[in-house]
Amino acid sequence: MELFSVQFHIYALQLHQANAASGMAVHDDCKLKFLELKAKRTYRFIVYKIEEKQKQVIVEKLGEPAQSYEDFTASLPADECRYAVYDFDFMTAENVQKSRIFFIAWCPDTSRVRSKMIYASSKDRFKRELDGIQVELQATDPTEMDLDVIKSR
């Protein structure tokens, strides 16, 4: 556990330095909460929001480990863009418990054009900050990320 703590702080320092060099900053908390989801399974999902005034990505919502996929989708605004990660648990055909970390770029058709452009242009850089994403989904309406879509990936 001590090694994790040291790596965690080194990474936080590197993250802070990387953010200073780019246009859309990523708040250190974004990466730290993602590491907790990945390594400790502290959260089921994380919803991220771009704060345009501060020009940075922040954590908007954290989902408790017991929350469902329906709780996750309900936490996304109907007409605003967001980034999100979801830790999906499943059983393989061999009856082995596994999980996949999904990155979801949520840009509903009803969101503002400016917002869609900002989220689209910042996505790849933000996603690179989250080391350990296994599947990426782009969704413009709820049917593009329903549970059947997740299971098929």
From TrEMBL:
One of its GO terms (biological process) is actin filament depolymerization. GO terms for cellular component: actin cytoskeleton. The keyword 4Fe-4S does not apply. The keyword Transmembrane does not apply. GO terms for molecular function: actin binding. Gene3D superfamilies: Severin (3.40.20.10). Pfam families: Cofilin_ADF (PF00241). InterPro entries: ADF-H (IPR002108), ADF-H/Gelsolin-like_dom_sf (IPR029006), ADF/Cofilin (IPR017904). Keywords: Actin-binding. Residues 21-153 form the ADF-H domain. It comes from the Eukaryota. SUPFAM superfamilies: Actin depolymerizing proteins. PROSITE patterns: ADF_H. Belongs to the actin-binding proteins ADF family. This is ACTIN-DEPOLYMERIZING FACTOR 2-LIKE. It comes from Salix koriyanagi. The lineage of its organism: Eukaryota, Viridiplantae, Streptophyta, Embryophyta, Tracheophyta.
